[in-house]
Amino acid sequence: MPKIHIRPVRPAVLSDDTALGELDRATWSTLHAVTPRPHPPYEPFFDDRNRPEHLLVAEAEDPAGEMRIAGYIRVDVPTPLACNTHVRQIQGLAVADWARGGGVARALLRAAFAAARSDGANRMTLRVLGHNAPARALYESEGFVVEGVLPGEFFLGGRYVDDVMMGRSLAP
Distance between CA 55 and CA 62 in Å, rounded? Predict the structure, then answer.
């Protein structure tokens, strides 16, 4: 797929709730999700744990020529401990099917790195399912390395799946 026109990544706002909820449901898969498939009635996307200030969104032109949310990344501190505030953790990354392969995920990752650095962080971590080869390849291409594996941590789709911990420095 050729690179698509992506607007500069921006912070999420409350009015993104519906579009982000739809994107989240449309991209749900056992390739990356450990929670059950969502069913109506749907909860709001934003809640006490999932707040707009934790998300960055990418907008791009869809195949119909409409500019809309193509993806999001959720980044937060991994724990409430003061001794851990130098770390940011990616806690969600989703890209619309129509935007996959167009550079959206990479743009979101790089924007998250920049935002974390400007917020004083010097390290980024994430967890990814062992069988999610496309995501692991993307993360590795952006400097993440495997720092630990919990073998068979999840039972998804009738099989045990590893939980892979990855991390990288945010030093320039």
Answer: 21
